[in-house]
């Protein structure tokens, strides 16, 4: 099923939570999920593939986001902020949300790859 939703992500480097000497680079990412369909949907679970600059991959599976399994009414949006830590200055994230419509249709909503990067680390 290809349900009409839009997922937008903005990432930000967190200087104060990072420690480059220990290879710890912290980022937050703000996600906006917009339901462009004609019925409400619920976000059930998430899957993230986090790739660092060494091509090491971490996979994260979990119920909901930030402790919630939000309902998103038709024409509405849901936004949240979360965080990730890398061992390198640059990396990326991508994945999907498992969703269900009010009528019981399950579908995966893909999240396009987005970059996590220390400012000036990518030219």
From TrEMBL:
Record-linked SUPFAM superfamilies: ApaG-like
Pfam entry (one): DUF525
ApaG domain segment(s): 1-123
PROSITE patterns: APAG
Coiled-coil intervals: none
Protein name, as recorded: Protein ApaG
InterPro entries recorded: ApaG-like, ApaG_domain, ApaG_sf, Uncharacterised_ApaG
């Amino acid at each position: 099923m290809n349900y009409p939703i839009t997922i937008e992500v903005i990432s930000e480097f967190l200087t104060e939570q990072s420690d480059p000497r220990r290879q710890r680079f912290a980022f937050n990412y703000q996600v906006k999920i917009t339901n462009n369909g004609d019925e409400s949907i619920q976000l059930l679970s998430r899957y993230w593939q986090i790739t660092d600059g060494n091509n090491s991959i971490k996979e994260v599976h979990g119920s909901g986001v930030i402790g919630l399994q939000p309902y998103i009414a038709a024409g509405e949006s849901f936004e949240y902020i979360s965080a990730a830590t890398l061992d390198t200055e640059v990396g990326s994230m991508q994945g999907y949300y498992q969703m269900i419509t009010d009528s019981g249709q399950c579908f995966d909503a893909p999240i396009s790859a987005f970059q996590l990067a220390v400012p000036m680390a990518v030219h």
